[in-house]
Each structure stands twice: as structure tokens, then as C-alpha cells.
Amino acid sequence: MTTPPPTAHRRVAPGSPLDTDGPRVALYTPEFAADPHGAYRAMRAKHGSLVPVELAAGVPATLVIGYYTAVRIFNDPDHFPADPRTWQRSVPSDCPVLPMMQWRPNALRSAGAEHARYRQTNTAGLDKVDQYSLHDTVAEVAIPLINAFCADGSADLVRQYAFPLAFAVLNAMLGCPAELAQQAATGFAAIFEGVDAERGNKMLIGALTKLTELKRAEPGDDVTTRMLEHPAELTDTEMVHQLATLYGAGIEPQQNLIVNTLLLILTDERFGGSVLGGSLSTRDALDEVLFNDPPMANFCITFPKQPILIDDVWLPAHQPVVISMAACNTDPEISGNQYAGNRSHLAWGTGPHVCPASSLAYLIAQDAIDQLLDALPEIRLAVPPGELTWRPGPFHRALAALPITFPKSPPLLQP
User: Fold this and answer.
1) Angle between helices 252-267 and 269-277 (to 10 degrees)
2) Residues sharing a CB contact under 8 Å with residue 149, sequence separation 6 or more, in sequence order
3) Cα dist. 50→11, 40, 61, 68 in Å?
4) Contact, 397 vs 296, CB < 8 A?
């Protein structure tokens, strides 16, 4: 059989490759951000489980929107490794998605023995987080944030609650001083947005280098110190990139998980009164969001080492293959619209790269939402849902703002 050219995305009939190259779906536009599920339906009708897309202008990739195809790829790291080094040689240094996708010496962008070494270090740091203490940490962060706006009768839950909460809780877990944490958060925000991403990457690395140096000199009871003390003996450079992974997962996706779940509770009659009334739990709402609007909608990127035929499509070597967790979770082949108690979604990934911090992310999001609803049970969306703006970007599912109104309330007592 003839091997396809390395840049082609080809669907084949039995026995003969056929060129079906054409316009790619742009995942970075405001139009896609406004209605991704409509885009996924159109993709599925036209392309099936594998879709030719662009992550940025001139950056081709294949988007996986079939659930079973995604599971196969997740569990086949030999054919679908996560190492992007060959790919990135052909990518301009100012490419807006390069900082998000480039090789780093961490578990997310490594394969084989390197991946195992980095992942063991990460899980060793995360597994010893005291979840009882973490409940207290979330409350200690949430209550002052609520007190800052509860007497106003209105707030933006992205800017005034979800972001600062995710930011402060992660810093507490990592033992990161506020000044370094702010620099890291600013850098990662630029990386996620793809705006001045190269400068953001430099800011992030600088802050995390200083954090690594600080924790070597002054160890503490925190994730950073436990990772530094792991028998793998990571270098400073390796540590910086483990921390970059934790910041990438612990702020933006955590914020989006909280906000997207609050939006569901505020706009879906199945959840509004039911969560407050106790017939449905916050966790039920979280599970539905992780199916339909996961905070990282399109991610878990791999780079085939050679052209590979899957679902009658030739995927080219070293071109990104991106899993659409949002589209796979709503694949008609598996979707039954029963989300409460259903944890079969792919929002955390699966296989060797499954997220090692999913239980912590659940806890933080659930506690953050419960603290807010307990304090302000009468919150309402301040604008019609159709007027909300979703931030463009190929990877995340993120609101620009979530404005709410509520009866003015006195400050809460700090526990």
C-alpha cells in the first residue's frame, strides 16, 4: 500500500488511499468558541471520528471526536507518543500554540521511561496532600473572597471568585509565595490565550525557577518539597517543568470547572433548585459539566511516530492528534444523557497519561461551589445566557465572565 505524504490527512477506501484534503476546521475562532457542540455535530456528519483541524493559523492537526477511537489512542502510547520534539522543529518560534504544546521534560510531554519517572514524582507529591486539610484551605480562601462582594449584590464569579480561589489553593498546595505565584499565573494566562505566549512562557519559567530554588533552600510540607525529595532526584530544570504542568492544570482548568458548573446550576432547571434542595448534589452537576463542557475541551495531544491508518484515515507522522474530550463524551455511540453518578467521561483522560490530580480537582471545585451557594443561595445570572462570552482558544472551554446578582448579604464569619 502506498504511504501517504507526511502532511496529508486522508480517508481511504478499501485498498486505495484517496486524497480528501480540504478546508480545515479552525478551533481558535470566536465562532467556534460560541458554539463548539454545533461544530462537533457538523464535524461528525462530514468526517466521522477523525477531523482535519487547525489549532492556530497554519498549524494543522487531527481532532478525535469518536469515543472508542479516543480510548484506543489513549491506551496506545507506542504508536501515539506525547513527545512533540520532531513536530516542533517545523513550527515558528512565535506560533501562538507552541508554548502550550512544546516539549518539556515533564510527564505530559514525555514517553516511555522518562514519562514513568516524571509521573512517579508528580503522584508522590500529590498523593500526600491531606484532603481534610484541603477542605479547610478551600474554606479559608473562599470566605474572604465572598465577603469582598457579598454586600454589593453583584459580582463576576470568574474574576472575583473562581480564578483567585483556584490560584490561592494551588499556591497553598505548592508552598508558593504570592509574588512568584502571581508571575506564574500571568505567564500561564498568556499561554492559554495564545496572546504574547512566548513572553508568558518566559515569565512562567522564571517564577518556577525561583520557587524551585526557594524550596531547595527552605523545604516545607508541600507538593514542591515532596517532589524535590523524591528518589528520582529531578534537576532544577526538570522540577520547573513539573511545576509548570501543575500550574497549567491547577489554575485555568480548575477555574473553568468551577465556573462552568455554576453556569449549569444557574441556567438548568434540573439543577438550580435541586442542588440547593438536596435532591441533586454539586458532584452531579460537576459530572454533567465534565461530560458536556469539560474545562479542557480539546487536549491530550499525541504525535504519531509514523503514518498510521486508523478508522480508515491515514494520520501523518509527527502531526498533532488532539483528543476532543467534549466531543467524545457526547458521541452518539456512547451518550445516554444520564450523567448523575456517571464517571465514564474522558475529561481526565485515560490510560498512562490519565490526570493524577482528578480527586483533588473534584474536591476543590465541589467545596468552592458549596461555599458560594451556602453563603448566597439566591444568586441569579445577571444577563441572559446567550449574552455570555466564551473565550476563543483551541484547548479550553472558558467563559470570559460570569456576572451574577443576589440580595445583599452581611459578611460571613471566618472559621
Assistant:
1) 100
2) 155, 160, 161
3) 9, 11, 10, 12
4) yes
Q: What is the pLDDT of residues 326-337, one digit of tens each?
A: 999 999 988 665
The total of structural domains in the chain comes to 1
> Any residues with CB less than 8 A from the CB of 186 and at least 6 apart, and which?
200, 203
219 close to 229: Cβ distance less than 8 angstroms: yes
> By residue range, what is the domain housing residue 26?
1-103+297-346
Strand pairing category for 59-64 and 321-324? parallel
Is 61 inside any structural domain? Answer: yes
C-alpha cell at 96: 501562538
Tens-place pLDDT, residues 95-125:
999 988 999 999 999 988 999 999 999 999 9
- Sequence-distant (≥ 6) Cβ neighbours of residue 11 within 8 angstroms: 18, 20, 47, 48, 312, 313, 314
Question: Does the residue 359 lie in any domain?
Answer: no
Residue 26 lies in a domain: yes
In this structure, is residue 98 part of a structural domain? yes
On whether the pTM is more than 0.85, the answer is: yes
Which H/E stretch holds residue 16? strand 16-18
Only one residue has cell 495564545, namely 194
Contacts of 14 (CB under 8 A, 6+ apart): none
- CATH number of the domain at 55, please: 3.30.43.20
